[in-house]
Amino acid sequence: MTLFVHLTAAKKVRSVRRAGIRAQSRNHDGLPGVFCLPILPSYQLTHQWVRELKRGGQRTMMVAVDFRVPDDEPVFVGYFSEEHEQLPSAEAAALIAGCEDARGYEVFIPRAITAKEVHRVRGMNQVTGWRYMPNAHGRFPCPCPGCIPRGQYGGAKIRQAAESRGY
After folding, report:
1. 0.85 surpassed by pTM
2. What average pLDDT is seen over the chain?
3. Which whole-number Å values give the CA distances from 109 to 86, 130, 150, in the listed order?
4. Residue 153's closest CA among 131, 135, 126, 136?
5. Is the dihedral of CA 99, 79, 131, 14 positive or negative?
6. 77: Cβ–Cβ under 8 A, 6 or more apart, which residues?
7. What residues are paired with 33 via a beta bridge?
8. CA 126, 18, 73: angle at the middle one, nearest 5?
9. pLDDT at 124 over 80
10. pLDDT value of residue 29
11. Contacts for 113 with CB less than 8 Å, ≥ 6 apart
């Protein structure tokens, strides 16, 4: 059994313990499921998505939900902005663990996680991880409306800086 971690809002803890993790996320193909990462020796890599999830509107405390899936269950794995490949869960975990730089990788399980599969729910550090994309330090953010929507905090400042650079 492969051990994965899913990050969610603390307000959903009762629901997760009672009914498991709902398959409300969608992958690139539109399939419903759950995004997660395998538990790795590095705390930073295991919980790398916290800051990006909080930047996307999740302002409350986040918790980590550890759960187990069978080793031979098919999952999708890949870098967040690229096409994902389908592998058994154990191979997907080994692929991420073997990467030189595993920042930005994700696993997608195309089904809900039952309450029986949940191993534990725990608190975690709220400022772990990257924002925008891995290795974003020193790079200017894209000012297009798709990346920085109107009304986003600090968006006008980013657009002004881009205009002064001739973007």
Report:
1. no
2. 88
3. 10, 23, 33
4. 131
5. negative
6. 84, 85, 87, 92, 95, 96, 105, 106, 107, 108
7. 25
8. 80
9. yes
10. 84
11. 6, 20, 21, 34, 65, 67, 69
Separation of CA 131 from chain center = 11
Choose among 68, 99, 78: nearest CA to 29.
Answer: 78
Rounded to the nearest 5°, which phi and psi values hold at 3?
-100, 125
Q: Are 131 and 56 in contact (CB under 8 A)?
A: no
Q: Give the span between the Cα atoms of 11 and 35, in whole angstroms.
A: 18
Average pLDDT over residues 53-61: 73
Identify whether the C-beta of residue 64 lies closer than 8 Å to the C-beta of residue 90: no
- Measured in degrees and rounded to the nearest 5, phi and psi for residue 122 equal -140, 155
3-state secondary structure of 99: coil
Q: What share of the chain is helix, strand, coil (3-state, %, to 5)?
A: 25, 30, 45
Q: Output 135 or 10, whichever has higher pLDDT.
A: 10
The residues pairing with 34 across neighbouring beta strands, listed in sequence order, are 109
| Range 13-22 contact pairs with CB under 8 angstroms and sequence separation of 24 or more | 13/63, 13/121, 16/65, 16/115, 16/118, 16/121, 17/115, 17/118, 17/121, 18/115, 19/115, 20/112, 20/113, 20/114, 20/115, 20/116, 20/117, 20/118, 21/65, 21/67, 21/112, 21/113, 21/118, 22/112
